[in-house]
């Protein structure tokens, strides 16, 4: 695994995007909702395979703060009170580079849940 240390992280509150740029020239615009529903916290990921929690209703979530954690991660403080996930540089890179696939999987799970409620 190569080192994916960001060269810049910008919080764009009005457009609800976290913009992350990497040394290799990659630049990802990550929507707050996407970051919230893919939080690396145990609350969302669970403590093992199959324990993931489908997070819903975060379309308007905001990020109040981006706090550096050492030289390897940031903690995102969301305005819904969620602040337990540490977003490592490699995880942010993964979220950016696999965004379309991960978002499609999330949307499919949301749709399946809605279909199950009908």
Beta percentage is: 25-35%
- Poorly predicted runs are none
Report strand order across the widest sheet. 1-2-3
CATH topology: NE0471 N-terminal domain-like
- Cα-to-Cα separation, first versus last residue: 44 Å
- CATH class group: Alpha Beta
Structural commentary:
The structure is a single chain. The protein has 118 residues and is of the alpha+beta class. It has one domain: NE0471 N-terminal domain-like. It contains four helices and six strands; from the N terminus they run βββααβββαα. It has helices at 32-37, 42-45, 89-97, 99-117, and strands at residues 6-12, 17-22, 27-31, 63-69, 73-78, 86-88. The strands form two sheets. It has a three-stranded antiparallel beta sheet. Strands 4-5-6 form a three-stranded antiparallel beta sheet. β2 and β3 form a beta hairpin. The longest helix has 19 residues, at 99-117. It is globular and about 45 Å long. The termini are far apart. 16% of the residues are buried. The model has no long low-confidence stretch (mean pLDDT 92).
Could you give a short description of this structure?
The protein has four helices and six strands; from the N terminus they run E-E-E-H-H-E-E-E-H-H. The protein is an alpha+beta fold.
